[in-house]
Amino acid sequence: MAVQLLSILVLGLMCGSELNVAAFAHPMLNRQPLEVHVPMRSSLAILLGRVMPFWMAGSTLLNLLLLLPFVNLNESAWRLTAVALAIQIFAVVFSLVGPVPINNRIAIWTPESLPEDWRVQEHRWDLYHWLRTSGLVVAFAFLVLSAGIR
Fold first, then answer.
1. What span, in angstroms and rounded, lies between the C-alpha atoms of 141 and 137?
2. For 33, which DSSP code?
C-alpha cells in the first residue's frame, strides 16, 4: 500500500506542477513585455528541463512497481494501474519527441537571439504540454481509482 500511495503522491504533485505551467505560468508570461517574457521562459525551460526527466521517470518507475506481484493488487486495480502506466510511458516518449527538443531551444533564447518563428515554437510547446498534461491527469485518475478498488 505504501508504494501505491507514494506513486499517487508523486504523480499527483507532478500533475499539479504541469497544470500550473500550462494554466498559469505560461499564460502570465505571455502577457509580459519581451524583456521579461523571454528570460523567464528560458529560466523555466532550464529548471524544468533539469527536474522533469527525473520526476517523470521516477513516477513511471513507481507505477511499474505497482504491477509486480508483491504489491498484491486485485485484477481490477492491476488493470487500472497498467492503463495508467501505459499513459505515463506514452507521455515520456511523447515528451522526448515533442516538447523536449523545443524546450532545449527555448532554454538558450535571449531577447536578442530569438528566432523568427519563436512565437510558433512557444505555441507548439504549449500545445504539446497541454496534451501531455491532460494524459498525465488521466493516468493520475486511473491510479487513484486503482487505490480505491484495491
1. 6
2. -
User: If residue 112 lies in a helix (H) or strand (E), which one and from where to where?
Assistant: none
pTM to 2 decimal places: 0.93
Max Cα-Cα span within the chain: 57
Residue type present at position 131: L
Amino acid at 95: S
Write the single-letter amino acid at 86.
A
The backbone torsions φ and ψ at residue 110, rounded to the nearest 5 degrees and listed phi first, read -130, 165
Distances (CA, A) of 115 to 60, 99, 120, 125: 34, 17, 10, 15
Q: What's the DSSP call for residue 25?
A: I
pLDDT at 150 over 80: no
Residue 33, Cβ density class (10 Å: 0-12 exposed, 13-18 middle, ≥19 buried): exposed
pLDDT at 72: 87
> Is residue 71 very low, low, confident or very high in pLDDT (cuts 50, 70, 90)?
confident
CA distance 34 to 149: 50
